[in-house]
Amino acid sequence: MVTPTAPRVESLARSGIQAIPKEYVRPKEELMSIGNIFEEEEKDEGPQVPTIDLKEIDSEDRVEREKCREELKKAAMDWGVMHLVNHGISDDLTERVKRAGQAFFDQPVEEKEKYANEQASGKIQGYGSKLANNASGQLEWEDYFFHLIYPEDKRDMSIWPKTPSDYTEATSEYARQLRSLATKILSVLSLGLGLEEGRLEKEVGGLEELLLQMKINYYPKCPQPELALGVEAHTDVSALTFILHNMVPGLQLFYKDKWVTAKCVPNSIILHIGDTIEILSNGEYKSILHRGLVNKEKVRISWAVFCEPPKDKIILKPLPETVSEQKPAMFPPRTFQQHIEHKLFRRTQEALR
Predict the structure, then answer these.
(1) E strands of 67-142, at which residues?
(2) pLDDT band at residue 344, thresholds of 50, 70 and 90?
């Protein structure tokens, strides 16, 4: 069994501590903006994350179809995040996925440790907690389970939870249906840039190379939620990210210089535009800064699926059609791996200041 270098956050939370260890306390300038997530979710004033109804995305009725696609495109350009409803994946399947993930996390920590990852040796799939890999030594109030779920021939089934028994079947079926939804979204985004329908999908690796990585985020109850974050502010490196959650609020988006709390929309899937699509579209589509808050009363769980291009096979840069004299390329050419390393380097530099 692998001995983790930091205690699991769940174990800390269950130990009965009244004060969180200093590694979890956010810097002073950040603390000013952390409020009570339940109160924040109830606020109706100010901008709200858009809800996009995909019911007519493939409609025979051209007017209805175009209206639906236009709304999706507008949300991707303005916010870079949205709640998708009528997305075509049944509530029964999403509930099975959530039940399976919750059942895995309901097991004792010792059971979950059998699936522990080893970040130091590069074995990133499995059960883990964030290690202090940044210069400020900051930790986040979450444990997680991370694994590749699509394409099927690239999966490592030895790391998939054996308990509960429905985990593999539910998660595999969800991955297949999500992959089809990703194609639909990428098609609409391509057409929105005046490109051929299949262009963005091709640019991010197509059916063979686009990887779907699932991260189940487990945010235990926190005795001092006003001092901590479940996940610190970041943008996703992916092309697209799809998120399910257990209807406990926590997600906040940095929109027009303010933190906006996402409402919990029943039977929805949250969609984030990631850096990869922002780069390819030369900033037309936004990859929005977001973070996760925690609370005292309820465990929050989210299921994030990152749709990622292959690490080294593709050069990410603004597509020629998105570049002009008026709008020069906003991003230098980099592989996906180089983009990840660049972001990490930049964050380290900022922390050292």
Answers:
(1) 81-85, 126-129
(2) confident
Q: What is the mean pLDDT of residues 211-240?
A: 97
Output the six-digit token pair for 137: 């030594």
Residue 209's alpha-carbon distances to 92, 179, 314, 317, in angstroms, are: 29, 12, 10, 18
CB 277 within 8 A of CB 284: no
Mean pLDDT of 55-76: 98
Catalytic center residues: 215, 234, 236, 290
What integer is the mean pLDDT of 329-343?
96
The three-class DSSP label of residue 211 is: strand
Per-residue three-class SS string for 99-112: HHHHHHHHCCHHHH
Euclidean distance between the first and the last CA atom of the chain, given in angstroms as a whole number? 38
Place of tokens 């800064």: 289
Q: Is the model's pLDDT at 135 over the cut of 70?
A: no
> Is the model's pTM score more than 0.90?
yes
Q: Sign of torsion, CA 190 185 257 214?
A: negative
Starting at the edge strand that comes first in sequence, how are the strands of the sheet with 231-234 ordered?
Answer: 231-234, 290-292, 251-255, 258-261
**Number of neighbours of residue 32 by Cβ within 10 angstroms:** 8
pLDDT band for position 129 (cuts 50, 70, 90): very high
Distance CA 284, CA 77 (A): 6
Amino acid at 99: R
CA distances to 219, 238, 243 from 106, in Å: 13, 29, 20
Distance between CA atoms of residues 123 and 116, nearest Å: 9
Q: Which residue in the block uniquely carries the two structure tokens 């990210």?
A: 241
Answer whether the bond into residue 320 is a cis peptide, omega within 30°: no
Q: Report d(CA 207, CA 199) in Å as an integer.
A: 13
Token readout for 299 is 């465990």
How far does CA 81 lie from the centroid of its chain?
A: 10
d(CA 87, CA 178): 9
Query: Which residue, 317, 287, 85, is CA-closest to 181?
Result: 85
C-alpha–C-alpha distance, residues 175 and 179, integer Å:
6
Look up residue 85 and give its two tokens.
Answer: 């409803």
